[in-house]
Amino acid sequence: MPKRTDIHKVLIIGSGPIIIGQACEFDYSGTQACKALRKEGYEIVLVNSNPATIMTDPGMADHTYIEPLTVDSVEKIIEKEKPDALLPNLGGQTALNLSIALDEAGILSRNHVKVIGVDLEAIKRGEDRITFKETMNSLGIPMAKSEPCYSLEEAEKIAGHFGYPVVLRPAYTMGGTGGGIVYNVEELREVCSRGLDASMIHQVLVEECVIGWEELELEVVRDATGKKITVCFIENVDPMGVHTGDSFCVAPMLTVPESVQKRLQEYAYRIVDGVGIIGGGNVQFAYNPADDRIIVIEINPRTSRSSALASKATGFPIASVSTRLAAGLTLKEIPYWRDGSLDLYTPSGDYVVVKFARWAFEKFAQAKDRLGTQMKAVGEVMSIGKNFKEAFQKAIRSLEIGRSGLGCVKKFEKMTADELRTRIITPNSERFFQIYEALKKGVSVDDIVRLTKITRYFIEQMAELAALELELAKHDFEGLSDELLIQAKRDGFSDKYLANLFHVTEKEVRERRLALGVKACFCAVPVSGVDNAAYYYSTYAKDAKDEVPVSAHKKIMILGGGPNRIGQGIEFDYTCVHAAFALRGAGYESIMINCNPETVSTDYDTSNKLYFEPLTVEDVLAIYDKEKPEGVIVQFGGQTPLNIAQQLKDAGVNILGTQPEGIRLAEDREYFRERMIALGIPQPESGISHSLEQAVALGRKIGYPVMVRPSFVLGGRGMAVIHDEETLKRYAVEAIQVSPEYPMLVDRFLDNAIETEVDALSDGTETFVATVMEHVELAGIHSGDSACVLPPVTIPQKHLDTIKHYAALIAKDFKVDGILNVQFAVCHDKVYIIEANPRASRTVPLVAKITGVPLARIATGLMLGRKLSDYASYLVPKCKNYYGVKEAVFPFNMFPEVDPILGPEMRATGEVLGIADSFELAYFKSQKAANAPLPLEGAALISVNRREREYLLPIVQKLHELGFKLYATEGTSKYLNEHSIPNTEVNKLGEGRPDISDMIKNHALQLIINTPKDRSEKLDDGYIRMMAIQQRIAYMTTIAAAKATVAGIAAARRNEILPKSLQEYQAGM
Asked: How far apart are alpha carbons 158 and 209 in whole angstroms?
């Protein structure tokens, strides 16, 4: 079949912000779709609200709309652009749900838009729990016993019939949102209530619980002729009961009999035929080896998180192939490196892939580290090895959690075997480290299999690793036999782990193994669907042969950002990808190293050469020694490459751009303070303490409140605003425990200050600042969590000039060659420096999109020796008649026990962007895009601490003028009455009924303004905020956000919001 000629303009809906359950795998799949459609000659209209992605760069689609992903927004875009077709299955659950809503509203038919890639009825057959069950029954596919419910009463009745425990699965959700395993009626009421709210159709499936069964997945592709292929067989190591996004998994299946795999494939093919998928689909099964029973759990009739993993695990670009199939091609018309065409594809490869999740429980003190059917991971890594042990150990050292292997974890080494037995019963983020320590302490494989229900093979493999480590520990390094060292390397033990084990340096381990001829060999993963493409991985396996050729071209290596986590997300991948593009354009062969399967940087065609490897000294040096590039870029991958930059340089690696010493000195607060004094740049009074006594003395000297933090962190890890000495003492012990090798910093907290930041380019002599970003929240909220506007709206020109001047002074003093992020605070008509980071920051893609200045590409050129003057035509910001407001997106719905209060430690998983002709409208759009739309009318609850009430009056006066009915808690109500603002006092919790809780549950409120109070009222405050999230009520926790909210509401009531593409904004249209 040739490509379709009845369509010419295709609308692609993206997945929106990075959230738990829907991360940057959809940036990867959406970017592949754009590239594939362009190659086939189609015009592309893209709508997505996420500014951090490559996908929303103006060069990726013909018409790029960074707009809220809502029915009314997309309807206006459809009416304006008049696309012929909609491709809905590459933007995750968000795009699927939105496409169904557009269809049911009649918008698609009214505008003659065809849906390609998947039948919308097929989506319902996969997503609606009732229709899915009916479809499976008609196909003869076995399922768990289940019944749908639409109310708590129905859920209780069904669960009573099935018997506890039961699994709750909300319809039309992702990442298990709102679901879970419940063991009693109380838990059922709590989880089911959440699930009904989370479901688009208010439907939850109550399902028989099959905890402990094996969880298995197939990634299948089908074309319009009905031809089907299985791209990948994935085996989850964690049994049923842990969400697949949290589960440790392997590909291919290592323990599942061939006969069972064939049955799974036969079921999967029946399902994708019955559902009517064209393109990729993921089918999840549960298998009970005890009675050989298989049941289907669910199907994703779209590219999914597992699609990204399957693509990278096999070299099969599922999103690209799915897009081409949606455009009318068949599998027979797409090339396959082994057998000619993709209709003949079968999974192959003599390697093992391991995926391991990355969590962020440390960011949420109140969150329980417990894994279940609702996903909690914020990222993941993928590793490739010749065997399970090697791949598993590579995955662990890829995680960026300060561990280079499974053992040597002090807190687990201190535990007894019985304590560890108890810990491993409940799935948690540390479970496999606990299992490893338990094995070292003599707990049997039988015991662990019985307690965890993990398949015996995987525990046996871990037991062999533990036994080898115990054998290694019997020797000192000098007495260690060559044979044992070689065996350790073949089993995946890293140089760094062995160095820790033997109390020697990593360099000593490296030199000894190299002297023995033990060095990494590199093997290829061929790419399907294209001609002559591959990417590479390392192995120490016996008899492995190096099969990766090295070219004579001049080349440069880029170190990626590793796994997504809070504080370091997709923004850094964006910068790395642009570096690869820039290097190609400059005539260099670009070499990418990264271990994140979700990203565009690990797509086969982003760089000339991709090594799918951990970002450690050992792994990077092995590639550097093989490829011998002219240099390595470390500025773009966030903290990950910076952590190893100095060691790489010490080992002889040529670091391009700003040198590691300069980066480190900028992060050394004592040195930084001295340099700012020398440069005449004001900074808050501060000091550095190495002990509790010093910290207390500094607090008394500086005066409260103070900002405290450990040194050398990203994402505000461990930062806090402290208001009294008692809290400071408690923090000092914890902070020094967090970063034992670094001192604790104590700064005067600039109360009521406006925080700003810049991303600057410097060639060592000249500096360019594209724009100044103004944070909406006042100083004290982490920059990654604060809404921000660019260009700024309230900062006087004299301060903007000062900010740019200070940035230039710092860039020159720190010998910045490339890119620099500097944060300032404006307080009492004076500009203070907060910190400077001579590396790419998370705001680079945001600034690039709003100003039109390609920061990452220019920074790459500067590192290659070019000057800013060479880019004069690019250094002209385009944001003269419009504003962009970035708003952070948080995972609080996944952690219902966590108070959603913001502070200096970052908690956001992603961000959205609102663009409009005014700040007020841009802010309004940003809230809508963040799925927290501001009400245009209704009732507002006001509960503000005493310190901030003086700033409250203009806000509530405006709300009153807009017709909002005002409710307030006792103290705030009294204050409003004193200033003649009509309001109704409402009871706090425990002070009589009806109270705040009743009002929230009865949907009597549309807006909540609640700033944190003192500790005596913390419970009341936290409950209000948590309830607001559960009930989806717009809530503000800062006066600054409340002020912007009221201005946004007023602007939206005055103006009609019409969509405009990014290309139109940048062209001044």
From this structure: 13
In 3D space, the residue among 698, 704, 691, 780 whose CA is nearest the CA of residue 732 turns out to be: 691
Kindly give the parts of the chain with pLDDT less than 50: 714-716, 738-740, 1015-1019
* Distance between CA atoms of residues 168 and 129, nearest Å: 11
Q: Cβ(102)–Cβ(71) under 8 Å?
A: yes
In a 3-state reduction of DSSP, which class is residue 180? Answer: strand
Q: How far is the C-alpha of 718 from the C-alpha of 711, rounded, in Å?
A: 9
The predicted pLDDT at position 1019 comes to 46
Token output for 224: 């319009």
Bond prior to 165 in cis (omega within 30° of 0): yes
Nearest CA to 297 out of 236, 344, 356, 352 is that of: 236
Q: How far apart are CA 879 and CA 852, in angstroms?
A: 8
Give the pLDDT confidence score for residue 1021 in this predicted structure.
62
pLDDT digits (tens, 9 = 90+) for 354-392: 999 999 887 777 788 999 888 888 899 999 999 999 999
Q: What is the pLDDT at residue 1022?
A: 67
pLDDT attached to residue 1057: 87
pLDDT for 739 equals 46
Instruction: Output the pLDDT for position 488.
Output: 97
CA distance 396 to 597: 15
**Cα 690 from Cα 732, distance rounded (Å):** 9
Query: What letter does residue 923 receive in the DSSP assignment?
Result: H
Dist CA 1036 CA 1033 (whole Å):
10
Can you read off the two tokens belonging to residue 608?
């000339």
| Euclidean distance between CA atoms 647 and 235, whole angstroms | 37
User: From CA 655, how far away is CA 649, in angstroms rounded?
Assistant: 6
User: What is d(CA 954, CA 89) in angstroms, rounded to the nearest whole number?
Assistant: 46
DSSP helix/strand/coil, 702 = helix
Amino acid at 345: Y
> Tokens 């250094």 identify what position?
875
**Which residues, 6+ apart, have CB-to-CB distance to 139 below 8 Å?**
270, 271, 274
Largest CA distance in the chain: 85
List 340's β-bridge partners, or say none: 336
Decide: 986 and 995 in contact? Cβ < 8 Å.
Answer: yes
pTM of the entire structure?
A: 0.91
Question: What residues have CB less than 8 Å from 443, skipping those under 6 apart?
Answer: 417, 420, 421
Torsion of CA 17, 22, 24, 28, to 10 degrees: -110
Q: How far is CA 578 from CA 175, 656, 684, in A?
A: 30, 16, 36
Query: Which residue has tokens 């100095």?
Result: 646
Per DSSP, 527 falls in state: P
Q: Is 543 exposed, middle or buried (0-12, 13-18, 19+ CB in 10 A)?
A: exposed
Span 294-345, pLDDT tens digits: 999 988 877 777 888 999 999 999 999 999 999 999 999 999 998 899 999 9
DSSP three-state, residue 168: strand
